[in-house]
Amino acid sequence: MTKKRVLLIVPAFNEEQNIEKTIGQIKAYQPRDDYTLDYIVIDDGSTDGTGEICRRKGYPCVHLVQNLGIGGAVQTGYLYAVRHQYDAAVQFDGDGQHDIQSLDAILRPVLEGETDLCVGSRFLDRTSQFQSTALRQVGIRYLSLLLRVLTGLHVSDPTSGYRAASRAAATCFAQQYPVDYPEPESLALLEKKGFRVSEAPVNMFPRGGGNSSIGWKQSIYYMIKVTLAIMCVCMQKKG
Amino acid sequence: MSFYLRAEMLFLAGVVFLIVLRAIRKGKLLVRFSLVWLFVATGMVFAATCPAAVDWMCDVVHIEKASNLIYLLGVLTLLGLSFQQTLLLSKQSDQIKRLTQSMSLDQAAEEKGEVQ
Q1: Domains of chain A: which residue ranges?
Q2: pLDDT at B2
Q3: A7 has a chain B CB within 8 A of its CB
Q4: Domain limits of chain B?
């Protein structure tokens, strides 16, 4: 039986403090026997040493010639996965917050054809080492409720960037992916197109270094923008 | 419509024509994007030279003074142009994103030796 091919998409913007540790984690991981695991770093036009580290260490990397933001970077990863005909693609943040040991939890349902997108959730069994701040958890619960009301999706951690996509879902994302703060909107988009979305518990770590891209001003913009975007997606025709 | 308003509109239309034509000549403005501005300036000339048409429009839309109608049309035109620019900006942002992704992926393939 031919092994399935899985690609880890590692978007990184100014992650010189974390990228080596993240890639070290991936390289040390022993995947199950039924698939092979590759990874690609998407250097999103970093202005620090991230790109240089990737070149020096020989990490497989796409250096975006200019910063596109997280949506554009992740979509580049999906384009890469489609070009190289991977069976599944997994988003895995370059800041070291995602635990590679949780990979199988989100990948198994996708590889076994049970779902098209499996979202890694910190809140399903509450064992994750990182649960986010109280204020952000309120925002996450609001977005979860909004998705449930507008699309019928039950996702407890809609802002999670740790997610596995089937080839079909990856192809869809390669064609259309929201630009900024894309995670909740992309779930609504998939649901609208008739894909199956599920979730599985994963572990996440607090940031090792560097700064989060979302401050309080961006948080306000985030909530307004994402709410509006989900509503707009819901108004689109199904399929 | 007062003589002064008509004179001001003719003067402004002349300024618009001048600025737009100079920008085209210097290669700063594409002809296809200049048409809308030339159309606006032509409309101003028409309103200044045919005040009866403006008065007739005032009667139709129940606006008492011709100057109010002119300002209203000006605001609506600018809003329309602004929206058109936003649409163009959105389209071009997407095109730039696609171009960046395509270029970067090709570059990565070249570095890996996948492309001869």
Answers
A1: 4-235
A2: 86
A3: no
A4: 3-86
Nearest to B104 among A60, A62, A83 (CB): A62
Residue A166: beta bridge partners?
A: A88
User: What average pLDDT does this structure show over A118-127?
Assistant: 88
Strands A35-43 and A61-63, by their bridges, are parallel
Chain A environment of B93 (Cβ under 8 Å): 179
Q: Which pLDDT tens digit goes with each residue over B59-94?
A: 999 999 999 999 999 999 999 999 999 999 999 999
Chain B residues in contact with A60 by the CB 8 A cut-off are 112
Q: For an interface test with B, which of A66, A175, A176 has the most B Cβ atoms less than 10 Å from its Cβ?
A: A66
CA distances A221 to A42, A99, A225, B93, Å, are 25, 29, 6, 19
DSSP H or E stretch at residue B20: helix B3-25
Q: Which residues contact A55 (CB under 8 A, 6 or more apart)?
A: A61
Q: Which two tokens stand for residue A184?
A: 């909740």
Residue B115 banded pLDDT, cuts 50, 70, 90: low
Alpha-carbon gap: B114 to the closest alpha carbon of chain A (Å): 11
| Under 8 Å between Cβ of A111 and A87 | yes
CA pair distance B40, B79, nearest whole angstrom: 13
Task: Quote the CATH superfamily of domain A4-235.
Answer: Spore Coat Polysaccharide Biosynthesis Protein SpsA; Chain A (3.90.550.10)
List of residues 6+ apart from B45 with CB closer than 8 A: B9, B10, B13
ipTM of the complex: 0.85
* Nearest CB neighbour to A80, from listed B97, B105, B107: B105
- Across the interface, whether the CB atoms of B105 and A75 are under 8 A apart is answered no
Among partner residues A60, A61, A79, which is closest to B101 by beta-carbon distance?
A: A79
